[in-house]
Specification:
The complex is a heterodimer. Chain A is α+β, with helices and mostly antiparallel strands. Chain A has helices spanning about 10, 40-45, 75-85, 100-115, and strands spanning about 10-20, 25-35, 60-70. Chain A has a 3-stranded antiparallel beta sheet with strand order 1-2-3. The two termini of chain A are about 10 Å apart. Chain B is mainly α. Helices cover about 45% and strands about 10% of the residues of chain B. Chain B contains 5 helices and 1 strand, in the order H-E-H-H-H-H. In chain B, helix 4 (about 90-115) crosses helix 5. The N and C termini of chain B lie far apart (about 50 Å). The relative contact order of chain B is 0.12. Classes of the chains: A alpha+beta, B mainly alpha. Chains A and B meet through helix 1, strand 1, strand 2, helix 2 and strand 3 of A and strand 1, helix 2, helix 3, helix 4 and helix 5 of B.
Chain lengths: ~120, ~130
């Protein structure tokens, strides 16, 4: 069966919650949509304590979904991010590796495409 | 310099605290419906698409709307599926709402625990307060 290769970056994102310090003081939080191909790199770079989130988009890591001031996002925001992107609540903030989940979903998508 | 582009914004981005990127989940888009994830995000997250929301959310959105959202003015959106469907589904939605509340509470607790572990002071304080009760 012929399968159409679907580039993960075209159809998927890893959603991460980040938080950090603002230059003027205080904290911010941000939900980020990260390209699957850059996920590991972003994890490493964010662990260096050196990365400035303002460069996130220009560095082509992905998109900022929503952000705000404070250490943590309000409950409503987390709920809406989950709803909007179809992330099951019981799978949120787990330790699960997102890459196999994305690969499996893309595989299913490819099967659907090739059978239609 | 990238920082200069956002100098007029309310939020000045800073350095991410080490280990402070917490996995939220994975999402998948469907090719053919959207030509790119970026387009989907910029298309959905527009003020015009925003539906009525709680006061707490409004407060945050107010800040976000005037703040430095990167990548095409991404702001915030409600799904918009519920706004015109009141009435005969009301009871059913309430039941789902209760289950959703429990689930999102659990997710929120998980977020606080993981954020505290990653060094988030607000999350650490919340956990300490819970333990002190």
């Amino acid at each position: 069966m012929a399968q159409t290769a679907i580039p993960p970056d075209d159809v998927a994102r890893v959603v991460m919650l980040t938080f950090g310090n603002m230059e003027r003081g205080g904290m911010y939080w941000a939900y980020l949509a990260i390209k699957p191909s850059r996920y590991e790199e972003f994890k490493k770079i964010s662990a260096t304590k050196q990365y400035n989130i303002q460069n996130f988009v220009t560095d082509a890591f992905g998109e900022v979904i929503v952000s705000g001031e404070g250490g943590l996002p309000p409950r409503d925001i987390t709920k809406q991010v989950a709803k909007l992107f179809g992330i099951p609540y019981n799978q949120m903030f787990s330790d699960a590796d997102p890459m196999p989940i994305i690969a499996k979903a893309i595989e299913k998508l490819g099967e659907k495409k090739s059978s239609s | 310099m990238a920082n200069d582009q956002k100098s007029g914004s309310k939020i000045q981005w800073g350095t991410i605290i080490a280990g402070a990127a917490i996995l939220t989940g994975a999402m998948l888009f469907f090719p053919g419906v959207m030509d790119s994830v970026a387009n989907l995000l910029s298309g959905l997250f527009t003020p015009a698409a925003a539906a009525p929301m709680s006061a707490a959310t409004k407060a945050v959105i107010g800040k976000v709307a005037g703040a430095s959202l990167l990548g095409g003015g991404v702001a915030y959106v409600m799904s918009g599926k519920n706004d015109s469907s009141s009435g005969h589904h009301h009871h059913h939605e309430e039941k789902e709402g209760f289950q959703d509340r429990l689930a999102i509470d659990r997710a929120n607790n998980m977020m606080v625990m993981r954020a505290a572990y990653a060094g988030n002071p607000q999350a650490q304080q919340m956990l300490m307060n819970q333990q002190g009760r």
